[in-house]
């Protein structure tokens, strides 16, 4: 479990560092997606520690541990919101690409701010 947490943490850190150091807007969008995937993976990992079985109500008493369905709904919502934000950022980048010959942040800042 510790190794999986470390891999997820490295994924989030790689996405964060790429978000800071990549000068291209398209690469920044990809870095945000990588970072969000790592956060969602970590949330899924911590939510699955309580149980792995689907909580289906039956008449029988059971001593098994069940997974909480609330984190699953939160994760589905986070995935949908992340997808819509990524689509919005890509549309904005396409609009910028129509006006600029490059997607480098410094060049765009020079053009719009004196």
TrEMBL record:
Coiled coil ranges: none
Membrane-topology descriptor: Multi-pass membrane protein
Record bears the keyword Transcription regulation: no
Annotated TM spans: 6-27, 39-58, 70-92
One Pfam short name: Oxidored_q2
Keywords: Cell membrane, Membrane, Transmembrane, Transmembrane helix
Compartments where found: Cell membrane
Main subcellular location of this protein, as a coarse class: membrane
Family: Belongs to the CPA3 antiporters (TC 2.A.63) subunit C family.
NCBIfam families with a match to the protein in the record: PRK07375.1-5
The protein's name: NADH-quinone oxidoreductase subunit K
